[in-house]
Design brief:
binds 8-hydroxycoumarin; globular; alpha/beta; two-stranded antiparallel sheet; eight-stranded parallel beta barrel
Length: 364
Amino acid sequence: MASLLAPYTLKGVTLRNRIVSSPMCQYQARNGLLNEWHQTHYEVLAKGGAGLVMVELTAVSPRGRITLGDTGLWCESQVQGFAEVAYGIKVAGSVPGIQIGHAGRKAGCSAPWLGGAPLPDSDPNAWQPIAPSAISFMAGSPHLPSAMTLEEIERTQQDFAHTAARALEAGFEWLELHFAHGFLCQTFLSRQANIRTDRYGGSLENRARFLIDTVLAVKRVWPEHLPLTVRFGVVEFGQEAEASFSESIQVLGWLKEAGVDFIDVSLVLSDVNEPVPWAANFMVPYAERVRTSIGLPVGASWLITDALQADAFVRAEHLDLVFFARTLLSNPHWPFQAALDLGIVDACSVLPIPYSYWLENWTH
Ligand code: 8CM
């Protein structure tokens, strides 16, 4: 029977449990390159017992970075650092995953702890973001992205494919494309952010084309035996929440046909003023509806912090995997705590042997 601490297999990959360390930007890279910070950060999460450790949103091109500190895999010289991190995750017993994406009109900002605002034009490091249309993510902002040409659209899809190929070369076994949170792919779907009049704008089919073409381009390089997944913003809260969810279901059906294996169900966040009803576990009912309507396995995150509830969501088949971010940041060994909370007899076995051996007598 499925449970939070039971193994999970998707295609050729088996996770030791259903706890996922969600992709969390560290903003500590330089020129996209990983360093000691990332190496220890991801190893600690893997040693803590998570089944899948996702490396943070990694840019497919320099202009696709949220900040100058984003990780990137847009050239061969960046592969080695990722290979070391992927290996460190794997030897600790987790499956190494990676989220790749392009920040679109949300690119070129300072780190959140420095305000998160667009870098001023006077900053020598500032760059102009690209987006489906020249519309800012903050109404009235002078920080406008340039509208992508058809050539830029095609090149960006290729950037996704090349980055996926490098992620594979680095040893990652689970790939997530970022189709949420108001970043480039999500804005193509948005009627407000995308006012194009060519084949990438207008009807839902046209607005979804960029996402589908991107999946097809990635599929040409990502092997069939490894999961190809998306983080998808399924609902835009506000007056049109249900309408946005219905559109998402249609697009997710097309993405399934294009070859997506799993959906990490998340938020739209195209507009900074979206009235998100933050509450414990609030995305789970949406994830369950996606699972039932689309017939693909799903995961969700956002304010899921309680082991018993997370376990109940898996047992009820509302979620296949549970993504944790701040819960694992505050305690990377939380999977062990979850096993204790769930009354699992050999709770220590969640951890690698050099830890579990010494902790063995903890529970009795
Ligand atoms: C970073 C900043 C903002 C976001 C993000 C990330 C990283 C991963 C993700 O979403 O899924 O919305």
